Amino acid sequence: MKKLSRRATTATALAVLALGGTLAATTPASAATKSAAAATYNGACGTGYKVIDSTPVGNSGKIFLTWNQSTGKNCAVTVRNTTGAKIHMEVTLKAIDSSQPVAKDSGQYTSYAGPVYVTGRGYCVTWGGTIGTASAGDSGHCS
């Protein structure tokens, strides 16, 4: 009788250890899926535009500032971390001390606002964006 109970206890202990190892191995993967995906540049500005800066918009996404060396233009786009229901989104871009108007795209979007363009050669630029109630902006990048 003792041998049977010892075997049963050993088998139960091994099963618990195996299950615990399985749970421990899957914990990092499930924790990773809970964190929000970071917004990545979506190529909306077109061929020849390279990302030169980005600014977070709260925890909702980013504004990407791009530059095209051959055309001398800047482009900006506001991108959400995850696509979802339509919400208010906006992107603005301005060449400082230029007679160019502010380039702006604003509306109800599922994934991104923009692209918007300004001639940036010879100017510094300022950019901004909104996703839902979160807004952000930055300036710099003189060419």
The gross shape turns out to be: globular
Helical content class: 10-25%
Element order, helices and strands?
A: HEEEEEEEE
Beta-strand content: 35-45%
SSE-based structural type? alpha+beta
- The count of DSSP E runs of length 2 or more, i.e. the number of strands, is 8
- How many structural domains in the coordinates? 2
Largest sheet: 4 strands, antiparallel
Mean pLDDT: 82
Count of helix runs? 1
Q: What is the CATH homologous superfamily assignment of the largest domain?
A: Immunoglobulins
* Largest sheet: spatial strand order: 1-2-3-6
CATH class of the largest domain: Mainly Beta
What's the helix and strand layout?
Blueprint: H1 2-34, E1 50-57, E2 61-68, E3 73-80, E4 87-95, E5 103-109, E6 112-119, E7 125-131, E8 134-140
Antiparallel strand pairs: 1-2, 2-3, 3-6, 4-5, 4-7, 7-8
Write out key terms for the chains shown.
1 helix; globular; single chain; alpha+beta; disordered N terminus; 143 residues; Immunoglobulin-like; 4-stranded antiparallel sheet
Describe this structure in words.
The protein has 143 residues and is of the alpha+beta class. It has two domains: 1-35; 50-140, Immunoglobulins (Immunoglobulin-like), CATH 2.60.40. It is built from one helix and eight strands; from the N terminus they run αββββββββ. It has one helix at 2-34, and strands spanning 50-57, 61-68, 73-80, 87-95, 103-109, 112-119, 125-131, 134-140. The strands form two sheets. A four-stranded antiparallel beta sheet has the order 1-2-3-6, with no helix packed on it. A four-stranded antiparallel beta sheet has the order 5-4-7-8, with no helix packed on it. The radius of gyration is 25 Å and the shape is globular.
